[in-house]
Amino acid sequence: MTGNTNAGAPRTLYDKIFDAHVVDRQEDGTCLLYIDRHLVHEVTSPQAFEGLRMTGRKVRAPERTIAVPDHNVPTTAGRESHIDNLESRIQVEELDRNAREFGVHYYPVTDIRQGIVHIVGPEQGWTLPGMTVVCGDSHTATHGAFGALAHGIGTSEVEHVLATQTLIQKKSKNMKVEITGKLRPGVTAKDITLAVIGKTGTAGGTGYVIEYCGEAIRDLSMEGRMTVCNMAIEGGARAGLIAPDEKTFEYCKGRPHAPKGAAWEAALTWWKTLFTDEGAHFDKVVTIRGEDIAPVVTWGTSPEDVLPITANVPAPEDFQGGKVEAARRSLDYMGLEPGTPLNQIRIDAVFIGSCTNGRIEDLRAAAEILRGRHLAEGVRGMVVPGSGLVRHQAEEEGLDRIFTDAGFEWRLAGCSMCLGMNPDQLAPGERCAATSNRNFEGRMGYKGRTHLMSPVMAAAAGIKGHLTDVREMMAPAETV
Amino acid sequence: MDKFTTLTGIAAPMPLVNIDTDMIIPKQFLKTIHRSGLGKNLFDEMRYDQNGAEIADFVLNQPAWRESQIIVAGDNFGCGSSREHAPWALLDFGIRCVISTSFADIFYNNCFKNGILPIVMPQEVVDVLMDDARKGANARMTVDLENLTVTTSDGQSFPFELDPFRRHCLLNGLDDIGQTMEKSAAIDTFETQMAQSRPWV
């Protein structure tokens, strides 16, 4: 295939996908990479479409471009007809206008298939193994769960992809993250991905594409794999990948935009070659034993501030270099005293949703903990399904009733509180157990305090009114 | 895009590690459909209190650094989201260069699309530059992209490395899309081949 410089040498999964998409390679290694799927949302695209208009350019491949509003949309009823916030409304209307004018695939808020772009893509079969997938959103890494090379881009690059269906890229380095053996009960995909970031730091993956592998990764469902890859970016990596297998193929089969018949068979033949060859070189290797991972939570304002729920809030002096001051600032922002047991930290809110944990399996897991139980007094809870179809499926299974009986609000699909661009926000000082991906200052609302964790841990915290070890609430033989 | 050749200006010291894109430009300012006008909200929640008044001890509010064109920052600057609003806000404020030990990948890329030069330096050099930046308005740092050097106000010069293609584009203010459009024949060929080899895409 074009641009494959060392055919025959053992290659990683990343090498193979990259090589298969090289349109042009300059002498210095700068490549033009073909993009198979371009996902677009309302926040990072208006300036890109405007750029096309100003230069008289077209969208080169509208059939490979998929637009859906998600960041700004309210998650309450009535949003189909009116969005109160003027600026949000303008962005959603701009996307509507751009999608129609440039003729790209489009799921407006009136469509049950609307949802968070990274949930809609896989759900509709747009995301398939071996593809290159980009979006003006850092959590594009999610799609790596399919063995697709997927990463976030800025708005200038969105415009570049719209105009040329390619991206100027240099090859990243290869990093392997292996999770060996089995996970213990109560430990989920979210705990894996947070534990990895806790070990490598938020810059540990900078300059790399991660391939996650090992028995514990193989054992995950597609939903779980998406959770793991979703947060590759929080570890600093450009993308996270998992080699496709029977679970991947089974998930893709029959999806609206997946190939059918002979095309499916042809695709499958190629997809089965998408694995890292024996002896391929990794520039960095991290190995964690699955059984060593406990349910974890974050205590600070960086996703690397991860500890097992059984630990205590650390002190700034526990760190070195610039992290000492960062930890001091985090503890002050989070209103936490060093030495406090994490499982005594009281919360005001629970948020279940986001592109990290807004899929049906996440809702099922949280509902299982909440069944027959209720949020602690004074704690508010919000469940925001990742898409209209996830919401519908959950309602078919009666999960919505479990959530509402437990005192949660049952919302419409969108990014919601994860980044608080719509009205779903924390009040200053409010503390939230969240299944989202970033605990940055102000992320979920001005002066809001975020503790990241898995859906079952967030559900358990809601019931107790403080961070807690979900394993204490599970029947002895129960596994999640 | 403006060319970047040589810049002599005030450098603001921001030693905090992991300065994320939410800090650089909080989400409420992502609702714009324009690229310009974000400078006043750069570092908004660090720079202003809840009533919109300036927080006096924040570096860019202090008289010595209000006109900064360079930031010397702690590790992993620009981590977090892909929002290009972060470099747009920096540029709109007047920042043309950020120096750190490391940058988050997407932010690093986005800088080059906007004529901002991110420079990676080893910790010991960042430490020297940070001290120089702390001197304030009378101390000017010089960044020379042609010769790939950063020179402190007292004349200490440090070399840095940069991808030659990125350097070329920045020096000449080249537009990526225009350059790629010149390769459209290669893209056509790739698409024709792909219709055979991966028709399901």
From TrEMBL, chain A:
InterPro entries cross-referenced by the UniProt entry: 3-IsopropMal_deHydase_lsu (IPR004430), Acnase/IPM_dHydase_lsu_aba_1/3 (IPR015931), Acoase/IPM_deHydtase_lsu_aba (IPR001030), Aconitase_4Fe-4S_BS (IPR018136), Aconitase_4Fe-4S_dom (IPR036008), IPM_dehydratase_rel_enz (IPR050067), IPMI_cat (IPR033941)
Cofactor: [4Fe-4S] cluster
UniProt pathway: Amino-acid biosynthesis; L-leucine biosynthesis; L-leucine from 3-methyl-2-oxobutanoate: step 2/4
GO biological process, any: L-leucine biosynthetic process
Protein origin, superkingdom: Bacteria
A single MF term (Gene Ontology): isomerase activity
Cofactor binding mode and count: Binds 1 [4Fe-4S] cluster per subunit.
Keywords recorded for this protein, A-Z: 4Fe-4S, Amino-acid biosynthesis, Branched-chain amino acid biosynthesis, Iron, Iron-sulfur, Isomerase, Leucine biosynthesis, Lyase, Metal-binding
Annotated EC: 4.2.1.33
A Pfam entry, by short name: Aconitase
Enzyme class, first EC level, given as a word: lyase
UniProt key word Membrane: no
Aconitase/3-isopropylmalate dehydratase large subunit alpha/beta/alpha domain segment(s): 15-465
Catalytic activity: (2R,3S)-3-isopropylmalate = (2S)-2-isopropylmalate
Quaternary state and interactors: Heterodimer of LeuC and LeuD.
NCBIfam families xrefs: leuC, PRK05478.1, PRK12466.1
HAMAP family associated with the record: LeuC_type1
Family membership noted in the UniProt record: Belongs to the aconitase/IPM isomerase family. LeuC type 1 subfamily.
Role according to the record: Catalyzes the isomerization between 2-isopropylmalate and 3-isopropylmalate, via the formation of 2-isopropylmaleate.
Protein name: 3-isopropylmalate dehydratase large subunit
Species the sequence originates in: Paracoccus halophilus
TrEMBL record, chain B:
Pathways per UniProt: Amino-acid biosynthesis; L-leucine biosynthesis; L-leucine from 3-methyl-2-oxobutanoate: step 2/4
GO molecular function term, any single one: 3-isopropylmalate dehydratase activity
Ranges where the Aconitase A/isopropylmalate dehydratase small subunit swivel domain occurs: 1-123
Cellular component terms per the entry's GO annotation: 3-isopropylmalate dehydratase complex
Source domain of life: Bacteria
Gene3D superfamilies assigned to the protein according to its UniProt record, in alphabetical order: Aconitase, domain 4
Record-linked SUPFAM superfamilies: LeuD/IlvD-like
Catalytic activity as recorded in UniProt: (2R,3S)-3-isopropylmalate = (2S)-2-isopropylmalate
Biological role stated in the UniProt entry: Catalyzes the isomerization between 2-isopropylmalate and 3-isopropylmalate, via the formation of 2-isopropylmaleate.
Family the entry assigns: Belongs to the LeuD family. LeuD type 1 subfamily.
UniProt-recorded name of the protein: 3-isopropylmalate dehydratase small subunit
